[in-house]
Design goal:
The protein is an alpha/beta fold and 215 residues long. The protein is 29% helix and 13% strand. It has one domain. The protein has six helices and eight strands, in the order E-E-H-H-E-H-E-H-E-H-E-E-E-H. Strand 5, helix 5 and strand 6 form a beta-alpha-beta unit. The longest helix has 20 residues.
Length: 215
Amino acid sequence: MEKIAYRYKMELPPLENYSDFKIRCLLDLADWEKLSWSRFGSGGVSEARHCFVDDWRLEHLWRRSGQGLAKALCIGILTAPDFTIEHDFPQEVAIYQVYRSNLLAYYWLLNGVVTVPVLQWGNEKTFHLSPTYIGHNSVVAVRGPGKSRDELCRWMAGAEYMQQYLNPALVLHFGRKVPGVWENALFIPLHSRRKVYSSVARQLVLPFSQHEMNQ
């Protein structure tokens, strides 16, 4: 019987720069409070999609970046892929997960997709990874913590770090609501397209142009 050779194939985004990039999602790119959201890959109709879903739903966006860009362009407004980082992951795996999430966000932004970078962390050694690629005063997205007390404590420590070092213009907070962490946030259900709940105290007008965002 003839053996069938299988080779893992990955299609990197066609970029000139694969490192030393910063991404920003500008506040005036959408009317964030009025958007209806649903999960990426869930079907149905909504104005925007979040990628806080199982990794198997996201993996093809990385392996087939051209097809992923086509889907992102059709959606128009979405978050970056939230590739999983657990608190006990090796540092090398966490670095890889954050890198590819932000590289895809950078690729989509350059091609005209309104892409919201996601805040990712596992343990305190990974707090600095997302700020490596995300600029200050950006609109960002984050998934709320799990139900356990330990998860909440780890999540709170990471969230406070992100607020301090990134000072987001707006945080799109999906899932379990944790008040008092973000200066400006919209709390959005993970599985609903109903109206979101706002805790935005003030709206910041960002001084960045589209050209400056890609510098």
